[in-house]
Amino acid sequence: MKELKLDAHCEAILQEYRDNLPAFKERAAAIHKLLKETLDGAGLLVAAIESRVKTASSLRGKLALKGGKYASLKDITDVIGLRVITFYTDDVDKVASAVERLFAVDWENSVDKRKLLQIDSFGYQSLHYICSQEDFPYRFEIQMRTVLQHAWANMNHDTGYKSGVEVPREYLRNMNRLAGMLELADEQFSRIRADITDYRRRVQALVASGNLGEVPLDGDSFRSFLDLEPFDKLNRRIASVNQAEIQEVSLLPYLAVFKALGCRTLGDVQAMIKEYGEAAFQLACYQIGLTDLDIISSSLAPQDICIAAILKRGGGAEGIRLMFDQISGTSEANGMLAEMIVEQAKDLPFMNQK
Predict the structure, then answer these.
(1) 180 in the same domain as 227
(2) What DSSP designation does 212 have?
(3) Same domain for 176 and 267?
(4) CA separation for the pair 43, 95 (Å, rounded)
(5) In terms of domains, do 178 and 231 share one?
(6) For the chain, N or C: smaller number of CB within 10 Å?
(7) Is the model's pTM score more than 0.85?
(8) Which of 114, 59, 109, 121 is nearest to 90 (CA)?
(9) Nearest Cα to 309, choosing from 318, 319, 299, 300?
(10) Nearest to 342 by CA among 309, 317, 318
């Protein structure tokens, strides 16, 4: 490809770029690192943070087109460019807030392309900040947009002006329709996240207030329920048999078991704890009472509550096997363990109560 000719002024700008290229690369990496650490520290999950230094050929092309408007390299604001890609539209503004705290923003040259579109049009949406740092004489650009806005920008670039060929009106219309669909999808994803967040807050409030019968049993509500340590009292009672320590493990696998046993609300789970807690203690005492076991798992209480419920409801060894399959995966050993538990439990008091 033939190299574009530049006048002496533009060649001087290009030489200034070459002289400072190592500093540009070092600064781009430092800004990237600072952005990542700041967003991670704020707990803001983003899809990607990208950074680049404009290539010499790209800068030459820019100077060939409009080099006369630049007095020096300092007037070119995108030699260093960064892009933060978020999952949700409202996170773009959160990233922007972080950028405003980290860097000095040149508001006159920054642009919010989200606000430039007409009410009846769709298209490229992105927030562009021109930023600077006191210890660095050159400005840099930070773009912020969502994953879907990023996808649109890339598709529009590849199918539109990049080709240098005028695109027929019918294709432009289809691209415009697609842009509208992506914009709607962006809005809906953010709305769904907000709705889920509100639901979790309501669940936490209901759990905290003790209105467990009003809380549907699902992953979020069960986590909030576990925060109340509903099995702790029974576990401590079981541990006292051998003066054992309790090793904490995740109890989330028991969500599926409680659902399989017919629990639909947290109130149902609480009722099972109350109804089968004594039977679970009897079972646990038989299991560990004649051993020197000095560590028990925090899962022992919910496990034995579920086993007691299965046995009292007539589920037998098959029901217990299915429970172990749900918790730890299918295994022949689960069947043998279930048979052994049935044999252990047959003479316990709770099995002989009507």
Answers:
(1) no
(2) G
(3) no
(4) 11
(5) no
(6) C
(7) no
(8) 114
(9) 319
(10) 317
% helix, strand, coil for the chain, step of 5? 60, 10, 25
Same domain, 140 and 247: no
In whole angstroms, what is the distance from residue 215 CA to residue 210 CA?
Answer: 10
What is the predicted pLDDT for the residue at 322?
95
Residue 125 counted as domain residue: yes
Report the relative pairing of strands 295-297 and 80-86 from DSSP bridges: unpaired
Q: What angle do CA 283, 240, 227 make, to 5 degrees?
A: 85
Asked whether residue 276 is assigned to any structural domain, the reply reads yes
Do 108 and 173 fall within a single domain? yes
Q: Give the tens place of pLDDT for each residue, 155-187.
A: 766 655 444 456 666 666 677 777 777 888 888
Give CA–CA dist 86/75, Å, rounded.
Answer: 29
Question: Which residues in 149-171 are b (16+ Cβ under 10 Å) and which e?
Answer: bbebbeebeeebeeeeeeeeeee
pLDDT of residue 123: 47
Least Cα distance to 114 among 125, 123, 122 occurs for: 125
